[in-house]
Specification:
The chain is α+β, with helices and mostly antiparallel strands. The chain has three domains: 8-108, Double Stranded RNA Binding Domain (2-Layer Sandwich), CATH 3.30.160.390; 113-233; 249-465, Intergrase catalytic core (hpI Integrase, Chain A), CATH 1.10.443. Helices cover 48% and strands 8% of the residues. It contains 20 helices and seven strands. It has helices spanning 8-13, 68-83, 88-110, 113-126, 138-147, 168-171, 180-190, 195-213, 230-233, 252-260, 265-277, 281-285, 317-331, 336-344, 370-380, 387-397, 405-412, 419-424, 429-447, 456-465, and strands spanning 22-26, 33-38, 43-51, 54-62, 292-293, 298-301, 311-314. It has a four-stranded antiparallel β-sheet, covered by helices on one side. β1 and β2 form a beta hairpin. 27% of the residues are buried.
């Protein structure tokens, strides 16, 4: 097809030849500059030339979007690149890559800690732990939400408002602004107010920073010394356990007396269960009736470490009697007045599936036993002991009975601390039960509780292990 000088009128008049998919018209004024017209009527300016013996064709743009003069100038620019030995397509790809990199850098700079924290928590929730190869617990995930919460929400009880999470002040920072100076200043403001929570939040923050470094989207944004600088570590509180957060042998009588005198039998049994089993607070609170085997005297505990299978521990005689009392109360129908009230609301009464059930708690099970425990501690005139202190007390008091350390660790759900314990000790339940019964019987003797269902051998062993006055 003969070349001709392009004009606006000629461009409008170009059509595709009959029987062809497309026709190309070349400009006589600018070398390599042309117009492609398809059978559907689409028109586009193009440029064609040869580079190192190969034909290169580049689409400049639609004729409706490009002015003829600008399209001709662009063709001249492309010709200049070809003459310089550059492929216009590669030049365009490099320019696009540079633009995208610049845009990505701006996006990375604008990412806040809250944005990355949200992705981090979602990763924790959906992926297995690289350490345990198991899903993280719901409580662990919920801790991350609480740490970053703004607070101010109404509490479920008491008409108060929730406190803000320790990490919330850092959430509005840009991720690149999470410097050692910023973290150090945050610790200096948080540690005096709540040192334990601040230390826990800092450990979670360190894990978050490590995750960012291993994630392509966030790698290289957080300064490398944000959590390792001496300015930061110097602001951390001590991690030693508070002295005295454990019951002593001579305090058992007063503690058991006050706890047994509580008006709420569920709270009373729960607190005694914490001490007798050494279980974690939530492990025991989540106990269902299907987890309690009274025939073979065992409890299936939802373990913090063995999240899938849990652990099975002995059900000691005295604790079994407490749970049986709760079971009878749980299976006793309520008054007619309450039954009518339930029917009016379209509800039907049925026994609770929870061992330590609660009518007022959202989950239907005991939620906040600290109030009752603090009342009992105050009534007994004892130094303050936390709920976790009862777990610590179990491990400490067990030494009076000369129980093997591995037995106590297995009952409490601790990881094996030695090679032999990890690979060569497989204690069956009946062996654990023998030692656990002795621990409970010894505690009852120290508390002055006469419990006739305890085995005679366990009671005699407990008396033998009692120090002489």
């Amino acid at each position: 097809m003969a070349k001709q000088n392009f004009t606006a009128a000629r461009v409008d008049g170009f059509t595709c030849e009959a029987g062809k998919q497309q026709s190309i018209y070349w400009d006589a004024k600018t070398p390599g500059f042309g117009i492609r017209v398809t059978a559907a009527g689409a028109k586009a300016y193009i440029f064609e030339s040869r580079l190192f013996g190969k034909t290169i064709r580049v689409t400049i743009g639609d004729t409706r979007a490009w002015d003829l003069g600008k399209a001709r100038a662009e063709a001249g620019h492309l010709k200049t690149l070809i003459d310089a030995g550059k492929d216009p397509r590669e030049v365009k790809a490099e320019q696009q890559a540079a633009f995208e990199a610049k845009h990505a850098a701006k996006v990375r700079e604008s990412i806040t800690v809250a944005n990355a924290w949200s992705d981090y928590v979602e990763s924790l929730r959906t992926k297995l732990s690289p350490k345990t190869k198991k899903p993280r617990s719901a409580g662990y995930i919920n801790d991350h939400f609480k740490l970053a919460a703004p607070g101010g929400e109404p509490t479920k009880r008491g008409g108060k408002q929730t406190e803000r999470g320790p990490l919330y002040p850092l959430m509005e920072l840009k991720l690149s602004g999470l410097t050692a100076k910023a973290v150090g200043a945050w610790l200096e403001s948080e540690v005096p107010i709540r040192p334990t929570s601040a230390a826990y939040a800092f450990r979670m923050l360190k894990a978050f920073v490590r995750w960012c470094e291993g994630h392509d989207k966030y790698a290289g944004i957080v300064p490398p010394d944000s959590c390792t600088s001496p300015k930061v570590s110097g602001s951390l509180p001590g991690t030693n356990t508070k002295d005295g957060d454990s019951l002593q042998r001579e305090q058992l009588a007063a503690w058991f007396g006050a706890v047994r005198a509580l008006h709420n039998p569920v709270q009373s049994a729960y607190l005694q269960g914490l001490l007798i089993t050494g279980a974690r607070r939530e492990e025991l609170a989540a106990l269902r009736w299907e987890d309690a085997d009274f025939q073979w005297r065992s409890l299936h505990i939802a373990d913090k470490i063995e999240t899938e299978t849990g652990r099975v521990i002995p059900l000691t005689p005295y604790l079994a009697s407490l749970l049986l009392d709760l079971k009878r109360l749980n299976e006793t129908p309520p008054s007619r007045r309450r039954l009518r009230s339930l029917e009016a609301r379209g509800q039907k009464w049925e026994p609770s599936p929870w061992v330590f059930h609660s009518l007022n708690a959202e989950k239907g099970r005991i939620a906040e036993p600290r109030y009752a425990h603090n009342q009992a501690i105050e009534a007994a005139g004892l130094p303050h002991v936390t709920l976790h202190g009862l777990r610590r007390s179990f491990g400490t008091l067990s030494e009076w009975c000369e129980v093997p350390v591995g037995v106590v660790a297995q009952i409490q759900g601790h990881k094996p601390s030695a090679l032999a314990e990890k690979h060569y000790r497989r204690r069956p339940l009946d062996m654990l039960r023998m030692w656990h019964d002795k621990i409970e019987a010894w505690m009852l003797v120290q508390a002055g509780i006469s419990f006739h269902q305890a085995s005679k051998a366990a009671q005699e062993a407990a008396f033998q292990m009692t120090p002489s006055a």
